[in-house]
Amino acid sequence: MSAVRAAFNPRSASAFDVERIRADFPILQLKIDGKPLVYLDNAASNQMPQTVIDRLVRYQTSEHANINRAVHYLSETATSEYEAARRKLQHFIHAREEREVILTSGTTDAINLVMHGYGRKFIKSGDEIILTTLEHHSNIVPWQMLAEEKGAKIRVVPINDAGELLIDDYEKLFNERTRFVGVMHVSNALGTVNPVKKMIAFAHERGVPVLVDGAQAAPHLQVDVKDLDCDFYAFSGHKLCGPTGIGVLFGKAALLEKMQPFKGGGDMIMSVTFEKTTYNTIPHKFEAGTPPIAAAIGLGAAVDYLSAIGMDAIAEYEHALLSYATEQMTRMPGVRILGTATNKAAVLSFTVDGVHPHDVGTLLNQEGVAVRTGHHCAQPVMQRFKVPATSRASFAFYNSMAEVDALVGGIRSVQKVFA
């Protein structure tokens, strides 16, 4: 099955042939207790198209070897394909140079790389790090660890009742001790699209570097790191129709060259003696040991697939899905949507009066509808809205309007059970 059939080149939501796209995803043919799978947990992980599955199989059956280790055919082929994936990712996020693309195990690994490689080297006692209330735990905990180690301080940008950052408050947090900013591009818990370009520009005027957690943005928006002018940008492959265990850290070359390696081992060195080790050039300085070769090649295939559809077309269609779902659920008595920002990506976080979110998720599963329940690794968000957890429906370009109807019908069934 081809990635995207030659005739398919959508330019608007009205031209978006979702049924044609759905045919590329074998898992969407599953039935749960005899009912069609309605997969609405895309913020946790996207599904994988057949073209990516086929690419992984081809690598494992005819190309597999360790990279950068030998001159035989398989090693040279694997090395070439691995580096080709890096170039695809460079173009996907519009990085200036391919050496600015570090392949990691995921967003969490990428953020930790920056914390260890940049933070531990440059952040000192008394320095301040600005984060936001919306952050995923993976962009909170590493910086807390650093602050505790160094005697630094975390400052937090608050949000309003719509789930939007208070930008005036953000700007007021800056002072002569501010050394770093970490901000997510899109909230995984609420879907809020943050004004990161404006936030980056403000920080840069004060000489402060910015890391953007792009885990929820890369699958839904056209990402241009040159245009954003971010210093670091992190995202994961499995949220991008690719394999698990692979992710990307973009970093400006000048910063990466100054950073210390996060991990030591093979391939991140130029020479080793017991007296001294000389580190390799970027990006290899940050890719110690055998990398996730198959996963990287699979992510390259996923990027090809998404690029063939077009990220602008994906964003437009998903916006239509979100608008329709929001309209339907807003009309439902007893259902509360958390996160009503003006600028949102395809996430609907909600509660149902009198029903615990886990019970909502369990009963929806009986209808074949898969949603996420819990705090979504964003407990400060839950605390802000005074709820222990929410149910979260998150959409992808292969979801249909009929699946939105299935979600709404499932919620009505939940309400009847608890009436």
Task: Identify the notable features of this structure and list them briefly.
single chain; 419 residues; alpha/beta; Aspartate Aminotransferase, domain 1; Aspartate Aminotransferase, domain 2; 2 domains; 7-stranded mixed sheet; 4-stranded antiparallel sheet
Write the layout of secondary structure elements.
Blueprint: H1 18-22, E1 31-32, E2 35-36, E3 38-39, H2 50-62, H3 73-93, E4 101-104, H4 107-122, E5 128-132, H5 141-150, E6 153-157, H6 167-172, E7 178-184, H7 196-205, E8 210-213, H8 225-228, E9 232-236, E10 247-251, H9 253-258, E11 269-272, E12 277-279, H10 293-309, H11 311-330, E13 335-338, E14 347-352, H12 357-366, E15 369-370, E16 372-374, H13 379-385, E17 390-394, H14 401-417
Parallel strand pairs: 3-15, 5-6, 5-7, 7-8, 8-9
Antiparallel strand pairs: 1-2, 4-10, 9-10, 11-12, 13-14, 14-17, 16-17
Helix pairs in contact: 2-10, 3-10, 4-5, 11-14, 12-14
Walk me through what this model shows.
- This protein is α/β, with parallel strands linked by helices and 419 residues long.
- It has two domains: 13-36 and 310-417, Aspartate Aminotransferase, domain 1, CATH 3.90.1150; 54-307, Type I PLP-dependent aspartate aminotransferase-like (Major domain) (Aspartate Aminotransferase, domain 2).
- 39% of the residues lie in helices and 16% in strands.
- The chain is built from 14 helices and 17 strands.
- The protein has helices at 18-22, 50-62, 73-93, 107-122, 141-150, 167-172, 196-205, 225-228, 253-258, 293-309, 311-330, 357-366, 379-385, 401-417, and strands spanning 31-32, 35-36, 38-39, 101-104, 128-132, 153-157, 178-184, 210-213, 232-236, 247-251, 269-272, 277-279, 335-338, 347-352, 369-370, 372-374, 390-394.
- It has a seven-stranded mixed β-sheet, sandwiched between helices. A four-stranded antiparallel β-sheet has the order 13-14-17-16, with helices on one face. It has a two-stranded antiparallel ribbon with strand order 1-2.
- Strand 13 (335-338) and strand 14 (347-352) form a beta hairpin.
- Helix 3 packs across helix 10 and helix 11 packs parallel to helix 14.
- The longest helix has 21 residues, at 73-93.
- The termini are far apart.
- The model is unreliable at 1-13 (pLDDT under 50).
